[in-house]
Amino acid sequence: MHRNERVRRGKLSVVRLVPDPREAPVVRDAVTWALEGLSASSIARRLNDAGVPTKNANDAARLTARRARAVSEPSKASAWTSSTVLRILRDPRLAGYAIEWQGRTIKTKDTPGAAGKRTILRDETGAPMEAHEGIVEPDEWWRLQDVLDGRTPVVRQTRRSVPRSWPVRACCSAACAGPSW
Q: Rounded to two decimals, what is the model's pTM?
């Protein structure tokens, strides 16, 4: 999605997010598909069928190489899941917004930790703070959130050309020799 880039500002070194040139087109496609009405599981299936690697797949390749030097079994490449797709589509950083984590706790040996939630940082007027270049336009991201929340009707395309079940009616009469379909 994004990668870190160090920028020098005088004596200060600042890390900022920039769209990853390999991942950004995949994310844009996922946004488009979601706006067209595809479910998160359909998007995940489409990405898996196309062989698009997840970010963890790159880590898995590194781990596989490391494990090959050891005795353990190589791990299977990570697959896209609906929860991964939703986590990406819900991320405010897609639109370039600054975020903060709410409810996130670090896992320790005594506590399980919690994932928390990304919330948009806002300025004193309540407007979202833009921190970096977004992958999609803010208006498109807000429209996407409405679709994901079910507030915007989306015309879903279907492959079925006939209804799921046909009502079966048989008519028998004196003039009829048998059932009429």
A: 0.65
